[in-house]
Amino acid sequence: MKKTWIYFSLLASVLLFSACNSNDPKKVSLDTDDDKTFYAMGFMLGGNLQRLSLSDKELAALYKGVAAASKNEKSEVDMAKFQNRIQEVFKSRMDKVAAKEKEAGKGFLDTFVKNEGATKTESGLAYKVIKEGTGATPGAEDVVEVHYHGTLSDGTVFDSSVERGKTISFPLNRVIKGWTEGLQTMKEGGKSKFVIPAELAYGEAGAPPKIPGGATLVFEVELFKVTKAADAAKEAAKAAPATKAAPAPKKK
Predict the structure, then answer these.
(1) What is the model's pLDDT at position 232?
(2) What burial class does residue 215 get, using C-beta atoms within 10 Å of its C-beta: 0-12 exposed, 13-18 middle, 19+ buried?
(3) Hey, where are the domains in the chain?
């Protein structure tokens, strides 16, 4: 766990609210571009707080602490004692959220296999062929060009090349394990649906703010092209700009 990132995320996500002299953040008006900029900063970084499932009272305590420190007021608690407790609370809360996500994901994956006739591999990946391909099958180090649509098990979209309208290419050994394994069950021209448990995705840490810890991921993937690793390396070498040797210094 990166302590600096956690503390900065907490601070940035509440600075706007603590500076507005309002007990209810929802009543803060965003009148200027600076207001909107700080709101955007807080919204982006505050996504990390989702993993803690904070109550309104806990959020209010957070605001109160930031406001007091920013005004150089004396702390109402023993900071030495509670600084040590911060990490304990973070871990406990995130473990609880991850466990809940994993349990829900397991049920979703089991239903996918049972009701949709999907195949479950030894690793825990589940996949279903939507459209059978006829071309090459990628190896673990090959480069693939794909379209994908990724959601959480509740249907929330977290990433989609389809929505962006542009395919993406990458070496298959540089993505999550579920993708590396899943794409190797496909052929060019094919389309499949993957249900990937947390162990083959982002684990208990997740990928905040969009992917919570322990999350099971659902992807629909269409495979357009496979470039063998050796061929990809040759293409990269050709595309690299030629480096000219520096001229030798002239003798005086």
Answers:
(1) 66
(2) buried
(3) 3-76, 100-236
